[in-house]
Structure prediction request, 780 residues.
Amino acid sequence: MQIDSANRTVQLSVRELANFRQIPHSSKLGGQTWRAGVGQQWHKTAEGQTQAQHPTARFEVSLSAKWKHKEWQFTFKGRIDQLIPDGSGLMIREVKTVRALLPASAETLFNRYPDYFTQAASYLQLARVLPEFAGMQLAAELYFIDIENGAVQAVPLTQADEDRFSQQLEQLLPFLNDRRQARLRLNDANIKPAFAQLRPGQAELFKSLELAALQAKSVLLQAPTGFGKTGVVLQHALQQMKAGLYQRCIYLTSKSSGQLETIRQLQRMLGGELRYLQMRNRAEHRIDSAAHSCSGDTRCEDELGLRWSQADIHPMELFEQGTVSLESAKALGAETGVCPYALSRGCLPFAELWVGDSNYIFSPASQSVFFEAQGFDAAETLLIIDEAHNLPQRAADALSVEFKTGEFLFALEALQSAAAPRRLIQIGQELSRVIEAQASGQALSANAIYEILDLSEDFSLQLKETQLDHAQIAPFALELSYRIPQLAQALAGPNHEWLHWLPSAGYLRATCLDARSWIAQCISPFASSILMSATLNPIDAFSESCGLAATQAVHIQGHTPWRESAYEVAVDCRVDTRFKKREAHYETTARTVSALCQYSPAVPVAVFFPSYQYSENIRTYLEAVDPGLRILLQPRAVDLAAQENFIDEGLLMADALFLILGSSYAEGVDKLGGRIDQVMVVGPALPEVNAVQQAKIDAHPSISREAAFRDVYIIPAMRRIHQALGRIVRAPGQQARVLLHGRRYTEAAYQQQLAPEYQTQLQIKNETQLHEWLLARNGS
Prediction:
């Protein structure tokens, strides 16, 4: 749907009009794509039957028509399934495949498929104003086909049905008028500057960004953490929207914690004048109340339309101070019985700015939340991707498919209980048996891939042709069953883009190694995109990993001269933090943490570890070495509020905060700047050595083993360190002392990947030198 609010014009398809609802649609199960494939086969069958009866019939007839309704001018496009000669006129036939017992009363079919009646009525009314149909008697009918048994039923449209076209236009008008009001809000908005006073380098970046946006469709923006990238980019985006270049802006992060500062920045700049919405995940929306208890899956949205109508919900009325908060969605859900996740999703079309996880654009499983929102037009949208250094891996993870035979066997039991055909169950059992027979920890052989692919395709074919009572099958069983076609597609992918392996017995994973074409495909529809991070280097490699050609992207850099002397760094050469060697140095590491805490009695020390296990081991040693220390280890898998509370509590109560490199706390929490001034980084967090990393090494274009190891292991590890350290110094005047704990930091391959402000010649080789370095703090 393309809306020109200023001129009150709309371009949309007939299907978009028919599907429009003020009430959000229920989330779809993965099987929709495969059921659509079955529907296409039935369409072809119906076409052949009509061709035999009416040789002059026409099929897939394109239609384009204009229509004026009140103050709005509509341009419709569509494709009529069948045009059949009917005496002196034509019959417009829309073929619809359903899972319903036919024949059924027209009222029953209308109540179940109102969109289909609206679509047929729209084609009929639009055809009547086209010159090519002038003077003809036109009628319309729906031709239902039950995809389970091929039963058919033709339902002619009545006058009441034909009136659905004008009624649907009336339904659309409030939304269009709201979008016009959004344009007026943008025109009149008083957008406050992102910064009361510009820091060194920010004015130059504003100019560079404005120029770069004119030069290329995608901008790669790199500036250190603490530079103010979020403010710069949001101010640029809002000014461009106000100027009419974009209707909407989407701001994505790869870690939820990174969204908090974005929301705070928007609140400061907008003051409630424009609408924005932070789209949180389904789990965070979960409630347990008398009116509604969330199931955590699509069952949450059963009877969504009925509950929404009974509650008389109007999304545009829910925005308070410019947004619909998670708390208000949950409160309204508890009051009305409407799923809070559906409430937030239903409010998206009425907001000018969307903030969310990168999965909402780059994950096939989550894309529909944004792309299928009413009125969304990527061609009128600016896409901003924060923490873009994570995008290639996040996109690859989203494309990867995992399959656990233990879970799948439970799914097969659920299918069997719902009377699924024996053949489907047998193929599923054989597929599980073959996977369980494979050796774990290594790539599948070519023969194993072929055998598993063959069984996956057989299962997928049976699934398409099987009549399943979806209402009687647990969503987890359906989801796992419809994952098999995804697995088949991955198994058939190019060898250099995929690794098919078993991390453990019975656990098959099709790991995407190269997501560049998918990323480019996702970015391409947008009017413009800005990919930003503190750690995009090496830029050429990053651009290539996102599928962006040199002509499609321009790189700009934000400079912060005040950071050059903000860090005092030393390398602790006393320990070896390699996985097989680190245990011998646990006590030294623990005593080093204790020493840092002793020299920082009033301010917690931030200690970054490569893994939870490493941090837990050192905490255990500290309980013996210095039992009085108050150590807080970041919690696992908690929501944004809990993450914020952990940092706030730790800064007040802890002697040391144990944080994990690469986590939300190390890359998404911005509360440490200026409040932590002593940091210890325990070894570089190299990626786990496994079949995936080996496959990346093998697929590396360089013949140099050192170059491959650098790109696959060292650069990602040092990027995590840059992200963590960048969050300690975020403004002029802030300073930090950093102890790089481990001999690897003295090696040239690691030193070369450190940013200039972190490079040092100061090496600590014994305990005396450590205490001398700590004593030298503040000139003492």
Observations:
- Residues 178-281+353-398+516-557 form a domain with the Rossmann fold fold (CATH 3.40.50.300).
- Residues 30-34 have pLDDT under 50 and may be disordered.
